Amino acid sequence: MARRTKEEAEETRQLLMKTALRLFSDQGIQTTTLAAVAREAGVTRGAIYWHFKDKADMLEALWDKIMQPMELVYEKLRGDVSGDPLLVLEQIAESFFLLAASNEDFQQVLKITMQSQSDPLLAERCQQLCREEMESLSSLMTQARDKGILRTDLSVKGASLTYYGFIEGVAGNWLNSGCDPLLVEEARPIARVLIQGLRKTPN
């Protein structure tokens, strides 16, 4: 009986997260209340506050769950960069585009992050994520520079900003243009174009 109760509680939690993700994406975070999430999910307000103390807590849980596949990619690819750090970055970019094109939940998270400029709660989380990603990028770009494969007219910071901005721009334009399935077919060449622009050309 206790096991079933635990399973039911987890089912309710997942239902609330799925519902919140859709409402946050469609209506915006500021205009979506936890009461609205509970109502849409068909549960009581007490149920939602049993699982999440506030909207920020729910956002954090959503973020951790949806971003987990990319975190696994990051960990796997960053484990060994002894050969070519830029190739690692190319594979990360390709994995990002493929996940965006194939995972509806991930698409909704991307839509939510595009609201960060108008939502203080989200802006703080996105700024933190950006800082963390820039630190990781800088580490790989530094290794690329030290190996002599990063173009010499770009600083480590400039290369990191270029990489981050390219991926953010492609993802944003892709979402705004209707999520064309072409991204699945061209994820690899798009990622390759990015890295070719960062790589030092042979003399």
Automatic annotation (TrEMBL):
Residues 33-52 bind DNA. It comes from the Bacteria. This is HTH tetR-type domain-containing protein. Residues 10-70 form the HTH tetR-type domain. Gene3D superfamilies: Tetracycline Repressor, domain 2. The lineage of its organism: Bacteria, Pseudomonadati, Pseudomonadota, Gammaproteobacteria, Oceanospirillales. One of its GO terms (molecular function) is transcription cis-regulatory region binding. InterPro entries: DNA-bd_HTH_TetR-type_CS (IPR023772), Homeodomain-like_sf (IPR009057), HTH-type_TetR-like_transc_reg (IPR050109), HTH_TetR (IPR001647), Tet_transcr_reg_TetR-rel_C_sf (IPR036271), Tscrpt_reg_YsiA_C (IPR013570). Keywords: DNA-binding, Transcription, Transcription regulation.
